[in-house]
Here is the input.
Amino acid sequence: MFRILFILCIGMVLGFLLRKLPYIHEVDKTARYTIALLLFVFGIGIGSNHDLLHHIGLVGWQAFVIALLGMMGSFWAAYLFHTLIEKKEERDER
Here is the structure.
């Protein structure tokens, strides 16, 4: 998990440092296809895993709960951020 986040952070730093290069923005165009390919390969891995398919009901339920809680947390954070921004704008107007 931390390895993935570390790789993501390295990519963000490199993107920031290389942002003025004219061809670096082409990466955005290929990202959609790369993600689609990764999801396809991930689906093949899931489909070929007999244990996972045997327990798909339990795993699916757990995944649903985790996704739902993640969405609720994201909505709550967005609402909190929106509220803080509105309060700051009200203070700035005075």
